[in-house]
Each structure stands twice: as C-alpha cells, then as structure tokens.
Design a protein that fits this description.
Elements (H helix, E strand, L loop, with lengths): L1 E4 L9 H14 L9 E3 L16 H10 L20
Parallel strand pairs: 1-2
Length: about 90
C-alpha cells in the first residue's frame, strides 16, 4: 500500500495533471508489481501546500482523466502473475 500518495503544485499550471497521467502510466507498466492499494493525500491544511485533486482546474481534469481507467479499479481477487510475492 502506498499511503499519502500525492503531488505538490509547481509553477506550471498543468504540472499536477501531468503527474496524474504519469502515475497512471507507471501503474499500467507495473513499475511496482506488488502494489495493491493507493491512498491519495487529498488535503489542504492552512499553511501547507494544497494537495487536493481539484486545487486547479487542470489538476481536476488530470485526475478525472485517469479515475475511470481500469488499472485504478483492479479486481481485488485477481492474482498478478508478475508479482514475486504471490
């Protein structure tokens, strides 16, 4: 499980949207084959950076683009053959 998974804003307005797309690409490529769960840090605490998926319109569109992808909704009963820990 990868907890508090997230991206900070950068100066480029579309950076977080691209980060979401890159994260999906990494998941599709099975970069972390043993990964079973992600918990996105969707937080905006006063005095800290805004981690929310909808902090900018670009970030929200990037998140919405990857959210319906099947890799984001795996079958919890399926076994992944590339996983050496199974």
């Amino acid at each position: 499980m990868l907890s508090e998974f997230g991206s900070r804003d950068r100066l480029e307005p579309s950076a977080r949207a691209q980060w979401f797309r890159d994260a999906l690409s990494a998941l599709e490529a099975a970069v972390l084959p043993s990964l079973k769960a992600l918990a996105y840090l969707d937080s905006n605490r006063t005095g800290e950076c805004d981690w929310r998926t909808h902090c900018t319109l670009d970030a929200f569109h990037g998140y919405r683009e990857i959210a319906p992808d099947p890799v984001m909704h795996p079958d919890p009963t399926a076994r992944r053959p590339r996983d050496p820990l199974l």
